[in-house]
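WARN  no MSA supplied for this record, continuing single-sequence
INFO  ligand: nickel (II) ion
INFO  echoing inputs
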Amino acid sequence: MPIRNRFAEMLPEVTGWRRHLHQTPELLYEVHETAAFVAEKLREFGVDEVTEGVGQTGVVGIIRGRGPGRAIGLRADMDALPIHEETGLDYASTVPGKMHACGHDGHTSMLLGAAKYLAETRNFDGTVVLIFQPAEEGGAGAKAMIDDGLFTRWQVDEVYGIHNAPGIPVGTIVTRPGPLQASSDEFEIVVQGKGGHAAEPHKAVDTTLVAAHIVIALHSIVSRNVDALRRVVLTVGTFKTDSNASNIIPDVARMEGTVRTLDPEYRAIMEGRIREVATHTAAAFGAEAQVIWHPGYPVTINDAEGAAHAVEAARAVANAVDDDVDPIMPSEDFSYMLEERPGAYVFLGNGDSAMCHHPKYVFDDEAMPYGMSFFAEIVERRLKAV
Ligand code: NI
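INFO  complex generated
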């Protein structure tokens, strides 16, 4: 089944918005110009209500259909990344050190395009709630919008979102019921030993050795405490001591790591085991370990019906659909919205581009008619006009 003709016609205009946003990337909650651009476009399209400043810099647009009915939320993220662009494109970022390297410029433009169409046609009963969020890249902007009343100030019965996917052909949409993306929690461990002379370790407590044992022991948690059929990843990413010379035994060592899982119950299990393993390993060597836990994004879980609705809509507009794609371990803060409302997240093929978060990543504008058609299709199916 083809994309909708209206979106094929609209592509040059939407590409213009996307490239404008691409040239002016903004980070986290500082998406002031992007949000102003979004709000201006929504007003220009005749969207019924536009509210700015939701969750600091989020924008909510309301489009009412022909009659009363349920409400569907459609979400896009607006923020860029602290990466220096290396694509050499003529519309590359004009801001040194900032780049739309995750395609959120494309997500925002696709939702604007869908909004323009839905405001023109209103071929549905009920309400479309357009959700443009800040700070997906580590700032939990979705949670900020929820905390600011996204689901209490506005009726939203189901919520859907799209992320582009390098490595999947343009025109293909993939998703799955259940866990789609992992949770992302972080930990810090501070190990306190007793510094001293490298030649006299018996008079010290060698903090480096203790911390090294902790790293090894932490890796036994996934292999020995996690059901082999479940998915959990633990990585220690930093390891530093306060020694600056080969002949000094350090007093303190610090490490930082991350835990990713597709099983929400393992978040608490991993936190508990990391605390036990770190503190008891340190104690065994006469040192002390302090564990600081930083909970991050939850597991992104598509509810079964939401995923089925998304797959039906995708089959109507995409060239190919996979309804049982493998989940991935990077995390996503749309997970907060799916904790509150049923719905689904889908991946939209971006073709053979560099991976997201790479300085040579390029969003493929040709993917946008599929994404816009998907948004329109889900609205017209779930809010069918009588
Ligand atoms: Ni992203």
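The pocket of nickel (II) ion is lined by residues 102, 104, 136, 163, 356 (CB under 6 Å).
INFO  checksum written, moving to next record
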